[in-house]
């Protein structure tokens, strides 16, 4: 286990204890570790040629509209539609499977994912993981950027919230496969996901870490950290990180 992964797992164990909201149920030990699931998807995606799925991403096929029609030609995202460029292949594949299985709820994405084969999901995941694109995001939610920077860098232990960087990396470019890049993500999307974890519409974070964190953040904090993360440099392509 390399040092980045070790750091992520140590953070996970700490957050499971400290970031759980009052009265919430603990994680069922029989449930599969979603972190390992992302690693498995990444290993499977490595055997797929992403070039074979470029047309699917750009133009769609049959009843499935193109990824680019919503996420942008360069995977940059827009508004409440997330940036995909530079996210890890394991993370993307895991989310597509979550949509297909109804674990993660979004009607548009459930429609698309349900029509994709597993190999197509893996191919699209690797296609976007290897895509490098400049940031198209900017602070737009009226968040306090200084407060957002403090939360990202140091967290706030008065409300039992750790630093974003403790799991998502010192540049917020993600760690391994399960902890995605947050840098240059569309702030409306980041905010919407924090809200979804808060009210239970999203439940698929490793070890339920994000549910506890989102519960602890005020609405102003959610806007602050979403805006701040949007100002960070975009992540490089996955293959350049692994070199």
Word description of this protein:
The two termini are about 15 Å apart. This protein has helices at about 5-20, 35-45, 55-60, 70, 90-100, 105-115, 120-130, 145-155, 165-170, 185-200, 210-215, 220-230, 240. Helices cover about 50% and strands about 0% of the residues. The chain has 2 domains: about 5-20 and about 135-240, Cytochrome c-like domain (Cytochrome Bc1 Complex, Chain D, domain 2, Orthogonal Bundle); about 35-130, Cytochrome c-like domain (Cytochrome Bc1 Complex, Chain D, domain 2). It is mainly α. It is built from 13 helices and no strands.
Topology:
Blueprint: H1 3-18, H2 34-45, H3 54-59, H4 68-71, H5 89-101, H6 107-114, H7 118-129, H8 145-153, H9 165-168, H10 187-199, H11 209-216, H12 219-230, H13 238-242
InterPro entries: Cyt_c-like_dom, Cyt_c-like_dom_sf, Cytochrome_c_Oxidase_Subunit
Signal peptide: 1-24
Domain Cytochrome c: 55-132, 143-233
CATH architecture of the largest domain: Orthogonal Bundle
The name of the CATH superfamily of the largest domain reads: Cytochrome c-like domain
Q: Uncertain segments of ≥5 residues (pLDDT<50)?
A: 1-32
- On the 0 to 100 scale, the average pLDDT is 87
């Amino acid at each position: 286990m390399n040092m980045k992964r070790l750091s992520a797992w140590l953070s996970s164990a700490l957050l499971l204890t400290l970031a759980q909201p009052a009265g919430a149920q603990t994680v069922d030990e029989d449930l599969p570790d979603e972190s390992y699931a992302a690693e498995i998807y990444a290993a499977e995606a490595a055997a797929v040629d992403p070039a074979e799925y470029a047309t699917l991403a750009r133009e769609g096929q049959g009843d499935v509209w193109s990824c680019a029609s919503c996420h942008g030609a360069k995977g940059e995202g827009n508004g409440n539609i997330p940036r995909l460029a530079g996210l890890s292949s394991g993370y993307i594949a895991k989310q597509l499977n979550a949509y297909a299985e109804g674990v993660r709820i979004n009607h548009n994405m459930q429609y698309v994912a349900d029509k994709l084969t597993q190999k197509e999901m893996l191919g699209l995941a690797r296609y976007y993981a290897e895509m490098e694109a400049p940031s198209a995001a900017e602070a737009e939610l009226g968040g306090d950027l200084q407060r957002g920077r403090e939360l990202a860098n140091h967290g706030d232990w008065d409300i039992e919230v750790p630093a974003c960087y403790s799991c998502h990396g010192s540049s917020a470019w993600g760690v391994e496969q399960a902890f995605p890049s947050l840098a240059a993500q569309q702030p409306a999307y980041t905010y919407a996901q924090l809200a979804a974890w808060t009210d239970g519409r999203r439940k698929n974070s490793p070890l339920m870490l994000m549910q506890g964190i989102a519960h602890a953040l005020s609405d102003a904090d959610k806007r602050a950290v979403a805006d701040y993360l949007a100002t960070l440099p975009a992540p490089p392509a996955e293959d350049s990180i692994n070199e």
